[in-house]
Each structure stands twice: as C-alpha cells, then as structure tokens.
Amino acid sequence: MSGRPTNDLPTPPQGTGRSELPSEKRGIVPGTAPQGGRQGLSLPAGIALCALGGMVATSTFSLLGPVFLAYGYLVVARGGDGKVRALGALAAVATAVVLSFSLGASAVVSSVVSCLVAVVACEALLAGRLTPGLGCVVVGAAALCSIGADSIVASAQGTTIKETVMEALDVIESSLDGSTIAVGTVMSGIRAAMSVLWPFSYVLASFGSYLFATIGMGMATGRGTEEGPVVPRLVTYDLPLWVVGALVVSAAGLAVGITVEGALPHAVLVVSANLVMALRLAFAAQGLAVLVWLLDSKGLSPLVKGLVGALALYLEVQFVVMTIVGLVDVWANFRHLPRGVEAAADAGETA
C-alpha cells in the first residue's frame, strides 16, 4: 500500500505514464509527438516547406533552399508513404522550375539539381545509408548533371562553357584596364587556372547543396529517436578506401597531363585536376573530423573550439593542412573508428 492519497480514484496501471508514447506517435521530426504541449508540423506544412525550399533555390540565397527542403521533406516522410514523399519532392521541383524559367535554362537546371540533391540525401538518411562515400557520389553526380545540361545549352548557343567563362574574365579584365602590373599578373594567373578548373565551380555548388541539406536534416531530426534516423556527426566522418584509390588515379593522370603535350593529355589534365580538387574537399572534411574529435577529447570551451576551427580553415586554404590530416587518418585511424572486419562485426550485432 502506498502512503500517497489517491482521492478515491483508481490507481493507473504500471507503464502508462506520460513519458511513454506509442511508437507511431514518435516521428523523425522533433515535436511530432506532444512535448510540453507543443505539436509537430502537419503534412501540409511539410509540403509547403518543400515548396519554399524550391523557391529559395532560385533566389540569391539559393544555398538555403536545401535547408528548407530537407526539413520539409522529413516532415512529409513521417507517414512513410512513398507517394506522399514524391509529392513533397514534386512541390519543390515544380516551384523551382516555374520561378527560374524566366531566368534561362541554366538557372532551371541549377535550381532543380539543388532540390534533387536534398531529396536524395533525405532518402539516403531514411534508408540508413547517409555515408561519406555516398555523399561523394551524390556531389559528383550532381556536378556532372549540371555540366552536361549547361554544355547542351551552350552548344545550342554556338559556344562552350569554357568560352563563356573566358569571356566573363575578359570583361572583368577590361574593366581593370590601366590598373597596376600586379593586378594584371593576378588576372593572368586566374585565367590560366580557370581554363582548367572551371568544372570545379560546379562541384562547389553541388557540395554546398549537399552540405546545407545535411544542416536541414540535422535540424529536423535533432538527436534522433529509437525509431527515427539521425544525421551522423562530423566526428564520425570516415571516407571509404575507394576514395583514396580515386585520388591516386587522379594524381597519376595529373602527372601525365602536365608532362605530356597534346589534346588527349590536356583532357586528362582537366579531368584529373578537377577530380583532385573535388577529393580535396572530402579529405579536408575528414581532417576537420579529426580536429573536432581532438578538441572534444580535451574538453575545450566553444570559443576556443571556434578559434581553433577558424585557424584550421585558414591553414587548409593556405597549406592544405586539413587535407593532409584527413588523408593520413585513412591509415592512422586517429579516432580508433571500427573499420573493415570490426565494422562488419558491429553491423552484424546491430542487425
């Protein structure tokens, strides 16, 4: 017998406290189950967020589009109905096409690709396959799709993407006519670099869309639940070995393109140089993951972590430090992450 008064009311059965909610009321978006009297977003609100993401993807702040789209898509995905998720994706893509149509075919392609990157990333999260390796594939595929579409558009206009880029640089250089010799030297260096690395701008755009999509997914999932997925933390970022193989092959192609003359070696040079630059982003992220792990282990304050992170980014831009750390971590495994047989064993235990 309990000593607490019950006011002549029946004692509730064990296991029916308010903290225990049915699993169907716990979604992947924080607040889908009642918490402190606050209700989660509804399905129409999720579709509206998807449409908002498509709209923002056509604006000056296009990188924020995947944030809204990813958040809204995961709200829509609570029901687990593929048709409803397709409706959310269609709302985003249709909005992007309608609002960017007057800006030209290139604007339509870039906004649609940005939306599709967010949708693919969300589907990968829902399937439990959001990995660094898949991220590399998604970013690369998105960049290739954008390059292919813009190449078709440029060909229809009787030009190429490279010629368009060079013409834009000519306009900039003509506006700087009469400047110092140093400015002219810098512009010459930029022209030489852009004649080879112009495809990398597409990689950067795709990488930005993927990165901001993960931010939106992280906002939607929070810390995750037992039933719902959670976006992997940066500290667990670990590239697969095939990315290292791609780096080795691209480095070899770069050496051939530099030392051998001809049209084919130049094409190899362009492909290899852009692939090296793209993989640099992946390995720099792994280097930052090692840095985050180290700072967390030291228990430093957020301010110190921010200052160290800013210094790390500066060193990466100037001396490729984080890229080197990330590449070495593939073999050294500074964070002692389970790999190979250990990872397979862990996957078998959790299955």
Topology:
Blueprint: H1 43-56, H2 65-76, H3 82-100, H4 105-126, H5 132-156, H6 161-175, H7 181-197, H8 200-221, H9 241-259, H10 263-298, H11 302-319, H12 321-332, H13 341-350
Structure characterization notes:
With 351 residues, the protein is an all-alpha fold. The chain contains 13 helices and no strands. The protein has helices spanning 43-56, 65-76, 82-100, 105-126, 132-156, 161-175, 181-197, 200-221, 241-259, 263-298, 302-319, 321-332, 341-350. Mean pLDDT is 86; it is low at 1-10 and 12-39.
Please summarize what this structure is:
With 351 residues, the protein is an all-alpha fold. The protein has 13 helices and no strands. Helix content is 69%, strand content 0%.
Oligomeric organization of the protein chains: single chain
- Which blocks of ≥5 consecutive residues have pLDDT under 50? 1-10, 12-39
Q: Helix proportion of residues, in percent?
A: 55-70%
| Rounded radius of gyration (Å) | 25 Å
Average pLDDT for all residues: 86
As a percent range, the share of strand residues is under 5%
Order of secondary-structure elements:
HHHHHHHHHHHHH
* Biggest sheet overview: none
In angstroms, what separates the terminal alpha carbons?
43 Å
The coarse overall form would be globular
- The helix/strand class is mainly alpha
Total strand segments: 0
Number of helical regions: 13
